[in-house]
Amino acid sequence: MVRSFSDRPLDAGLVDDILTDALRSPTAGNTRGTAWLVLEGPEQTAGYWSHTTTEEWRRRSRRWPGLSNAPVVALSLASPTAYVLRYGESDKAGSSLGPPLTEGTDDGEPAGQGGEGAWPVPYWFGDAAFATMALLLRATAEALGTCFLGNFRGEDSLLPALGVPPEWRLFGTVLLGFPAGDDPPSSSLSRPAPSAASRLHRGSW
After folding, report:
1. Which of 20, 77, 81, 181 has its CA 20 to 30 A from that of 101?
2. Which among 15, 24, 57 is positioned nearest to 130, based on CA atoms?
3. pTM for this one?
């Protein structure tokens, strides 16, 4: 991950190629319920930062100047609604993960559970993660710098400001650009690493 970018713009054709490649990542049920919203250039990317950071953070962060230079900000989006509707279709109906059922059984009990709350693991976020990793790998192969930013704040104001329909959620954001070469090292790098043996298990834990 790069946290200090040059403000040098990226070739628009290369950005399109990278994002098109990311759209080819797998989606559960072939739902294709993921999407990207791309902001390019200072005028567009400034809107992203104004919703997701505070003035206080920008003032005290040593990384803010380098991060804000990134010429491309790509929002990784997912639609829970698309997945719920897909898993209500005939070939997936047995999963009980489709839309909530409104009719009850003969004994008055609900006929089943459904909707977003029925999903033990929301596939939409998993698929958005696959797409994000695909983008990161392709960008790295193109010798670009990348940084993934989690969805910590600002989604409720950012997405409407960008005209995103309400059924879409922000998984996270990828910054793309050329590294500036003055990246402050992350304090996380000093954490002791567990051994591979403690994280890799065969047959049982």
Report:
1. 77
2. 24
3. 0.90
